[in-house]
């Protein structure tokens, strides 16, 4: 390896400065970034499905327009992230191919069904809440295009979390049936939301190197703890219970203790055996095939414009 280039890279990292697309970087740093950013992009795209299915069934025109905007934001995040990954030399087609062939992962959380309207609230409150906890530190990621993308994404995620909270707040203060529906959604989504932060630190093969490279700024367990601490008072304000009998304030640690998570469940979902993995992939592949004519038309249009510009 070019030792001068490596020294420059190390110095940028040590000074907490950004690595930019034209800078030299170790091949493994590049590979890790493509893996994480593309999987993040895939999560945003697949993540449109559970809530997208509720657009036509939203309980009012106002709720419907808010949900359309929210789901559209997720599409924007996905495209933004694909662009950030493309600066590392991988094409969008390659990334899409890796998603559709099952080679690339996407977040486990999107393999759970959105069964009721309250689930739309729980996804906004818990899933977007977890996404914010994970992504705010990514704004300081050492790779410039990823960190900058995260700034805008986080602003939109906080609006998403508030809209989820507000849906649950309305239900929790509604009829007994509505309150029960809100509690049921939280019961089903809380554990999987905690698993979004990834395996425990002792079982997280990528964390150490990613933290040394300042891609990740905190470990999976540190961020999970931060999330639990943030959600307890919010749940109290909502009048809903977090489904964990071991949840208790620990004065000595200054954090909430929480119960063990079902890591076999996370492994099974990542391996493709969650409740909705098959359905999510089938839907993605069909949408991609149905959209072939749009890509062809756009390419033909672009070709015509380039040739007109040239004459
Ligand atoms: N699901 O060694 P680690 C959203 C994989 S938010 C699936 O700890 P790492 C917003 C991991 O990739 C959701 N796979 O890995 C939204 C690795 O496999 P690999 C997306 C998981 O990378 C809201 C292996 O396990 N957010 O979309 C999961 O250091 C509402 C070992 O794990 C991001 O992607 C999991 N939960 O840490 C949209 C954030 N956990 O790649 C719509 C950026 C772990 O070696 C609606 N990503 N794996 O084959 C990250 O921060 C990190 O990649 C982690 C994992 C923390 C997810």
UniProtKB/TrEMBL annotation:
Domain of life: Bacteria
A Pfam family matched in the record: PaaA_PaaC
InterPro entries: Aromatic_CoA_ox/epox, Ferritin-like, Ferritin-like_SF, PaaA, PaaA_PaaC
NCBIfam families xrefs: PA_CoA_Oxy1
Protein name: Phenylacetate-CoA oxygenase subunit PaaA
């Amino acid at each position: 390896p070019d030792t001068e280039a490596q020294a420059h890279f190390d110095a940028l990292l040590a000074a907490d400065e950004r690595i930019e697309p034209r800078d030299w970087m170790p091949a493994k740093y590049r590979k890790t970034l493509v893996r994480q950013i593309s999987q993040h992009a895939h999560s945003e795209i697949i993540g449109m499905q559970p809530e997208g299915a509720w657009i036509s069934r939203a309980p009012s025109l106002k709720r419907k327009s808010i949900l359309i905007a929210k789901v559209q934001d997720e599409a924007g995040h996905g495209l933004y992230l694909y662009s950030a990954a493309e600066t590392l030399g991988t094409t969008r087609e390659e990334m899409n191919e890796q998603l559709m062939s099952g080679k690339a992962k996407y977040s486990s959380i999107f393999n759970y069904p959105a069964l009721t309207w309250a689930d739309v609230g729980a996804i906004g409150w818990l899933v977007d809440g977890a996404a914010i906890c994970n992504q705010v530190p990514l704004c300081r990621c050492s790779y410039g295009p990823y960190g900058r993308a995260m700034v805008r994404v986080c602003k939109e995620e906080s609006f998403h979390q508030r809209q989820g909270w507000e849906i649950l707040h309305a239900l929790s203060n509604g009829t007994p049936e509505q309150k029960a529906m809100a509690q049921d959604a939280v019961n089903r989504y809380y554990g999987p939301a905690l698993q979004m932060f990834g395996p425990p630190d002792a079982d997280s093969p990528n964390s150490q190197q990613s933290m040394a490279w300042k891609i990740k700024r905190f470990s999976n367990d540190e961020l999970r703890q931060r999330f639990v601490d943030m959600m307890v008072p919010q749940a109290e304000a909502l009048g809903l219970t977090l489904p964990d009998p071991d949840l208790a304030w620990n004065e000595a640690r200054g954090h909430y203790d929480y119960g063990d998570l079902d890591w076999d469940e996370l492994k099974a979902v990542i391996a493709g055996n969650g409740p909705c993995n098959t359905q999510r992939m089938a839907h993605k592949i069909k949408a991609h095939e149905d959209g072939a004519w749009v890509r062809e038309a756009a390419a033909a249009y672009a070709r015509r414009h380039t040739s007109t510009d040239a004459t």
